[in-house]
Amino acid sequence: MADHGRRVLLLSNSTQAGHDYLEHAAAPIQEHFPAGGRIAFVPYALHDWDRYTAKAAAGLGALGYKVTGVHTGDPATVVAEADGVFVGGGNTFRLATGVHRTGLADVLRERVADGLPYMGASAGTVLAGPSIRTTNDMPIVQPPTFTALGLIGFHINPHFLSGAVVPDFMGETREQRLAEYLEENETPVVGLPEGSWITAHGTTVTAGGAHDAVLFARGAEPGPLPVGSDLSALETAPHVGVAGDAGC
Amino acid sequence: MADHGRRVLLLSNSTQAGHDYLEHAAAPIQEHFPAGGRIAFVPYALHDWDRYTAKAAAGLGALGYKVTGVHTGDPATVVAEADGVFVGGGNTFRLATGVHRTGLADVLRERVADGLPYMGASAGTVLAGPSIRTTNDMPIVQPPTFTALGLIGFHINPHFLSGAVVPDFMGETREQRLAEYLEENETPVVGLPEGSWITAHGTTVTAGGAHDAVLFARGAEPGPLPVGSDLSALETAPHVGVAGDAGC
């Protein structure tokens, strides 16, 4: 992967309680996308693509951008004509199915390697990792593969929330789920709380936003990644794909 | 599917707060498996199969059963020599990978159709449905297919818990996740709270346990399924497989 031109902004969440859509991340978004630019929006994570694109157009429109849904034309062409791409949140399995079936996965890998700014939120942030194995979402559809875009060389768990959520409830905590992930996988995971984000500019990868992130790595207790931390050392893992995810 | 000999017991959870493993379900288990019987245990949902089998042996041993892990010999042979099978909870993706890779999925479908009592808990309950699309688990490994055993003709969401769990947290509620499932799938889902279970005896399917279940069906608001409800009318859907899950 040609990392040196990479410009990636990965938000844990697109809507923060008490704020309009994307409002909490206005500053990093305006640093990320060129002023007044055309943004190709990938709406596949939700069911109603037109409605979702209208929502993205309103949120990014308030920041001065023009939004086009990739489903309104040939997806590769819409991306080719854009100054940036935004992959919205929703269901990660539906999103992965969409980008693989349309061929957009390969298009995005190539264009981001060439320097096209990529922004993801929630499912769109998971998709930027090596695989979708650290999504919180329900597997409502079966994508052809769990392999994701591999724009960054570690996994992200968005909407990260520590601890048991309901007294006496026996479902797993997020930490237990990620410990199970580490039983099966070597690539580390950054637990990214709501209100926080990660930026990757070339080979520089940085934690940003309102709250510290949490590192989950094999053989170590979970540990804090304070806002401002350099995360580039986590990119020791292969950037694209995970053993066993090739599908067929 | 030869439903008429079917004997299936599907627990939402294996451990209830304040109780030992399986203790809360002692009564239905002792109705389900023949007294003193040999139980084949499927431990694939957790990482340490020996340790998990020891736990199942202790829990079922307290109820008079003898437990053998299917991994301690040829899985089909262990099942063939058993009076019942118990598929334990853990991670549904890891479980599905295990039963498909070993060929146990086909063995279990055949033996349960022939009358072998099947008990599942949590992931083992999801596995009894048409697909794993309604699991709560993190997709830490990619199974060859989302298609499950199809022992019952509707989906179950175990550990069902209504409503938002943390104020101002933007992750989806369980209801939102199941609404997204219904955007993509027609088979109804029974949300099964902890402490509750479903029994299928031949063509009779019944809600049991401590708390009412919740029905999620396309085009309808979620509605209660009181303890004792006849669920057999939900089995209108195809019993095995879901369109698009065939994988390769």
TrEMBL record, chains A, B:
The residue range of the signal peptide is: none
UniProt keyword Nucleotide-binding present: no
Give, as one word, the top-level EC class.
hydrolase
An example Pfam family from this entry, by short name, is: Peptidase_S51
Q: What is this protein called?
A: Dipeptidase PepE
The organism sits in which domain of life?
Bacteria
Q: Which residues form a coiled coil?
A: none
The record's family statement is: Belongs to the peptidase S51 family.
Tell me its EC number(s), please.
Answer: 3.4.13.21
SUPFAM superfamilies xrefs: Class I glutamine amidotransferase-like
Keyword Protease among UniProt keywords: yes
Any one GO MF term held by the record is: dipeptidase activity
Q: Which UniProt keywords apply?
A: Dipeptidase, Hydrolase, Protease, Serine protease
